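Repro:
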Amino acid sequence: MPYERFHSLVNLTTYRYLLIDPLLTNKPINKLVLNDIGPFVSAEGRAGNAALASAAGIYDTEEEGVQFILESKKAFGPFTHEAAQKFARDSLSKTETGKWRLHYDPKIVTGREPGATSIWRSWDRISSPVLTIWGKDSKLLTAETVSKMQTTGPKTELLAVDNVGHCPGLTTDMEIDKIKSFLLES
């Protein structure tokens, strides 16, 4: 599953289904990795994210789509040239008509009520260890929310990434090594 779709599906629905969905009650999640999302997102953060997603179009060529991603998703980096190209290409899918579009959950743009999202009660019910990867320049996951996440509920472990905005690209050795060690530690 491409990164953007996996990211949005998991991060935006984890809290809802982790503890509430009866189908998951007998299938516990042992560890949880969140990429720049938390139990509170301001109305401004959500609106900005939706506006960025809405700016994406349909592209005649893969290269046009890559250029849009490289320009609009700079906050996900910093990337090496090779990592940026891979990230951009992994973020695209070819349509049935042979054109290119961003491959993400369309509910990022539609299907959500405006306003802030606050699901602290669900956060407080999580008993699994949590690793939160935070782009310190993020407009969605703020320092205030991160601080509260470290002291409430599962008391998240944190990987803070300097000079990165919403949604670190998860391409650096530091990011990958941290996720691996978190998932493999007993």
